[in-house]
């Protein structure tokens, strides 16, 4: 068996801490504020199929491992650019991005944390696919900027390398001071959020960079992905991560 290096051991432990996997049996003792999709088992947490009351991420270990693999790829192949997530909830995936950079002493990439920090937007009539969306009514999805900052601090991973973009994507992303992107992880759920993220970030993704779609299983999110890919004439293969997430690599 290959012996893991200290950096790998740290990142494995960081994932488990962010996902609360080490103590998952204790989550059953906590009242879930909405009783929505709360089923803390090893299986549901691995696939990101529950909405945890304590864990700092709901993406599950399979999507977290995918993020890890993408970061290793761009580091090994020297793909230029920063890391960004649009729609961060409690900040877990971004915390892992920052932990990865710290573990390997990488100082020439930033982690961009983009969110309204007020939950999801109300449906915009300009995007008919979102007409019946109710995400904006879910207080559970509203996590303040201050709480996310505190979560970074709990892991000793908050510093000037972490940059916050607070506001609706349509307002913050067009003028975000990001030149090149190596990994764009999109977790906006809705058509509008997904479209705004792709339209404003995809042109800045470096060749060889990765686009990760967290909620591809949601119809309006999937529709936005395919509408944008058709408009931008993107033929790169969409690969599944688990039953919710997909990704592709930019080749041109």
Which helices and strands, and how do they pair?
Blueprint lengths: L5 H13 L23 H6 L12 H17 L5 E5 L5 H12 L7 E5 L29 H10 L7 E5 L2 H4 L8 E6 L4 H11 L3 E9 L5 H13 L7 E2 L5 E4 L3
Helix pairs in contact: 1-4, 3-4, 7-8
Give a verbal description of the structure.
- This protein has helices spanning 6-18, 42-47, 60-76, 92-103, 145-154, 169-172, 191-201, 219-231; strands spanning 82-86, 111-115, 162-166, 181-186, 205-213, 239-240, 246-249.
- By secondary structure, the chain is an alpha/beta fold.
- It has one domain (71-249): Rossmann fold.
- Strands 3-2-1-4-5-7-6 form a seven-stranded mixed sheet, sandwiched between helices.
- The protein is globular, with a radius of gyration of 17 Å.
- The relative contact order is 0.14.
CATH class: Alpha Beta
Strand order of the largest sheet: 3-2-1-4-5-7-6
> N-to-C SSE series?
HHHEHEHEHEHEHEE
Question: What overall geometry do the principal axes of the alpha carbons give?
Answer: globular
Strand content: 5-15%
Radius of gyration over alpha carbons?
A: 17 Å
> CATH-wise, what's the superfamily?
Vaccinia Virus protein VP39
What are the segments in which pLDDT stays under 50 over at least 5 consecutive residues? none
Instruction: Look at the structure and give the mean pLDDT.
Output: 92
How many DSSP H or I helices? 8
Per CATH, the architecture is 3-Layer(aba) Sandwich
The CATH topology assignment is Rossmann fold
The major pleated sheet works out as: 7 strands, mixed
Number of domains: 1
Tell me roughly what share of residues is in helical segments.
25-40%
